Amino acid sequence: MRLWNAHRRVFYKNPLSYQNRLELQSQPDGWRQILTEDVVKFVDDLKANRLAGTPEQQKQIIKQLLHNTPRFFSRPKNVPLELRKQVFLPNFVVTFMRTPHLPPKYASFWVPLWFNKLDFKNYLKNVYNVDVLHIRSYVQQSKVEREQLPGSRTPGRLFRPQARKKMTVELVDPFIYPEEEKDLSPWESETFKKELKQNEEMFKEESRATQPPIDPDLKRRESIAQQAQEFLQGRQRWRPSWQSIPTDTRVMQGTSRSPGIRGTI
Amino acid sequence: MVRPSTALSARLRLTTKQVNGGYYKGNRTGSMGAHTEWGGYVIDYRKARNYNCPDLKDSRLTPFVSAQIDPRNLDRAARDDTTYIPGRSSGRAFIEAWKNDSPDEYSTKLDKWMLYFAQAEKIAAQQSIEHSAEALEPEEADKTMESIGLEDHYHIDTQGDKDTTAEAEDVPGESGRLWRKGITGQRKISSNPAPPQQETDQRRQPY
């Protein structure tokens, strides 16, 4: 098999004539001159890591390489894990999704965008010792959104959030999902929810100061209604503000200065 | 509530799914093989990645580490620990630093010890003349420290001191420069409580 893309090709292009090649093959170390450097290095690495096997098996490997190099490297059993690209401390998150609508042999995950199917198969095998039959992958594009800066009247710029990659895996063995956590107190879910709510209210108040309100301010309405009721029922007596606000009272009585504007009074 | 519809036209960067022919944009998953002459694709398993997983049996570590953890704080915590052993520094540099930090103590206690240092320097200078090619081993240096009687003192007092942990090379006759080297050397930032000393090509001096 000859490979077309010279830039990325894995195969050698044989510059030797057929006769030359036959001669070289008959010699014990002639294959080193026929195969390219990276292939020779691969065989040397096999021997160095004691993965080449017996001399007969080594001969078999070289025979296969001479016959068809790309086919040899396209079989995963021919390339041991030690001679692939090694990754030791990756930094990513793989999320296992709860998809009860899928058959029991299927599991689906959110994976990093740069993952491919070979990556994920190796990852599941090495980390979780899970055998995989088949993988489907799908990149989900996100919709265009607009930036909303708090406190600005002008509309923000448009942008598209990053896409997400989903992989659905067909496993060798069926599985059962773990039970859902019902008690979320160890994760402080209540404080988290409270904070969320507070943040939302803060954001609303801020936006009310700058933008025309979308929702009516129900709290203010309620408080006005309550005050009106109290006045009507005689529970509160109306007084002018200089009497009801203590600082103002003191200023009007002449016992203290005005707190707001110094030197005027 | 009616939500405004999203904008349809915007000058945004193209995604992997836009544009029909002649345009390709990937997700940077990496090359795992090569294209064949007939439009196929052959995987080259030498290019595939292998994720190495350590032995996780009885491991207390969890897969998640907060990105907010500052390794320098870990280092500080290690310094407060009683089992912390600081990196080696020159004994003389340490005493010179002490002299500069608190001159009163130095005048009362350390004058005598500096004499010992001067003696030891003489011996070391003789040795270096005799074996000019060989550097003094760290163990030998320890022995000479013991003979002077400073070993315990050195180890106890350098525990609290951060700045003297930096390596300083003692050059006889250049005490001023030496002190500056010892003090202004950058702090080592490492999560390891006892960072191993770096092996350099420079010869190790006795003090």
From TrEMBL, chain A:
Region of interest: Disordered: 232-265
UniProt keyword Phosphoprotein, yes or no: no
A GO BP annotation: mitochondrial translation
Biased segments, Polar residues type: 241-258
GO cellular component terms given for this protein: mitochondrial large ribosomal subunit
One MF term in the entry's GO annotations: structural constituent of ribosome
Keywords of this entry: Ribonucleoprotein, Ribosomal protein
Family of this protein: Belongs to the universal ribosomal protein uL23 family.
PANTHER family cross-referenced by the UniProt entry: LARGE RIBOSOMAL SUBUNIT PROTEIN UL23M, RIBOSOMAL PROTEIN L23-RELATED
Name used for this protein in its record: Large ribosomal subunit protein uL23m
Source species of the chain: Endocarpon pusillum
Lineage start: Eukaryota, Fungi, Dikarya, Ascomycota, Pezizomycotina
From TrEMBL, chain B:
Family the entry assigns: Belongs to the mitochondrion-specific ribosomal protein mL41 family.
GO biological processes: translation
Top-rank lineage group of the source organism: Eukaryota
Region (Disordered): 156-207
Protein's name in the database: Uncharacterized protein
InterPro entries reported for this sequence: Ribosomal_mL41 (IPR019189)
Composition-biased stretches (Basic and acidic residues): 156-165
GO CC, one annotated term: mitochondrial large ribosomal subunit
Classification via Pfam families: MRP-L27
Entry GO MF terms: structural constituent of ribosome
Protein's cellular compartments: Mitochondrion
Keywords: Mitochondrion, Ribonucleoprotein, Ribosomal protein, Transit peptide
Keyword Cell inner membrane set for record: no
Record flagged with keyword Metal-binding: no
